[in-house]
Amino acid sequence: MSAQTFYGDAASVLIRTGIDFSDFNLADAPALTTYLEGLLGEISDTFDRYLRTTYLGVVDVNNNPVPVPAGLNGIANDACAYIVAQQIASRQTPVVRVDDFRITVSTSTVLTNDIKDRLKLYAAGRGAVSVDLGQDMLRDLPIIFTADQLDADPADLP
User: Fold this and answer.
1) What is the 3-state secondary structure (H, E, C) of 25-39?
2) Residue 4 needs a FRET pair 20 to 30 A away by CA distance; which of 13, 67, 108, 122 works?
3) What CA–CA distances, in Å, run from 72 to 80, 84, 117, 120?
């Protein structure tokens, strides 16, 4: 299993949005996947800077890749779907003269309030990650004894 290089995945964004490569005037589906993976890479960089940590490329004590939390992948997929929706809306909005209507500009904000709230669960120093520590690390953990164990015969201790 190779380590993930960005949060989320293009296939999930495609399912969330229902877009087609023709929506972006791209040549084919692989070109759309490449485009979405580029967006997910940008989103991942933004998330890591906001979180002040990364969940990409993390390995356990046996040098095995630690999977990115599923929730964090989901947040990245949602952020990417939001950006794609904004891009499609921007492309489909007709040109409007200022005198005709009140103008509102659609934003391309990645860190919406909803996304920020959800990312707080993964910020440095928050939450917990379930990782198999391995026997080597477990052996090095400090042992804490109860008062009853302090008075016990050392041969009876774990």
Assistant:
1) CCCCHHHHHHHHHHH
2) 108
3) 12, 18, 12, 10
What are the Cα distances from residue 157, in Å, to 135, 141, 145?
19, 16, 9
What's this model's pTM, rounded to 2 decimal places? 0.70
**Structure tokens that stand for 142 in this block:** 């400090």
- In a 13 Å sphere around the CA of 117, the CA atoms on its Cβ side amount to 3
Q: For 13-71, how does the pLDDT look when each residue is reduced to its tens digit (9 = 90+)?
A: 999 999 999 988 899 999 999 999 999 999 999 999 999 999 999 888 898 888 999 99
Torsion of the alpha carbons at 59, 61, 62 and 67, rounded to the nearest 10: -30
48's torsion region: left (phi>0), alpha (psi -120 to 50) or beta? alpha
